[in-house]
């Protein structure tokens, strides 16, 4: 009897004799600023930034209370950006991450145009997307007043394939995919937080000092 009623009701729905009554659904849009992390997440001695997808998405939703301190300074505005399944090796993306780290966003985008690597093209697209996200979603007033605080690339997945050779032989091919994580901060980078390359004179001075410090072990 139940199956007969279900079939007859389905037939009437298809023919238009019975109109389905849909429940009223109220869609609630939660703004980013409605989410506040617990106090335990604000302890910098226990929690550190890590190149992880879940943590990156979590930190992007955190709203810090007013007058928060970070590293002894007022907390700056942050933009967390994630791009997944980039068809490039994470070992090759490492060069682009090191290149843009600590640079102004506009300066990094300009210099990546002259970086003759595929990783530079990918990193430039990521920086442009992150800058657009900062303006449209985070409501950053000056898009150029940001620098790349952190840049990571780690392996996502590797797909094995084959390449056909002559003589009925085959070779293995690895299709590598990576994830790119970026963190932009407002303002200029602090001198003690970013590592800077030594000048030519300093490098020569250190090299000469290392030569002078050489000793013959077990000598007279």
Automatic annotation (TrEMBL):
GO terms for biological process: translation. GO terms for molecular function: structural constituent of ribosome. It holds the Pfam family Ribosomal_L22. Keywords: Ribonucleoprotein, Ribosomal protein. One of its GO terms (cellular component) is mitochondrial large ribosomal subunit. SUPFAM superfamilies: Ribosomal protein L22 (SSF54843). It comes from the Eukaryota. Signal peptide: none annotated. Belongs to the universal ribosomal protein uL22 family. This is Large ribosomal subunit protein uL22m.
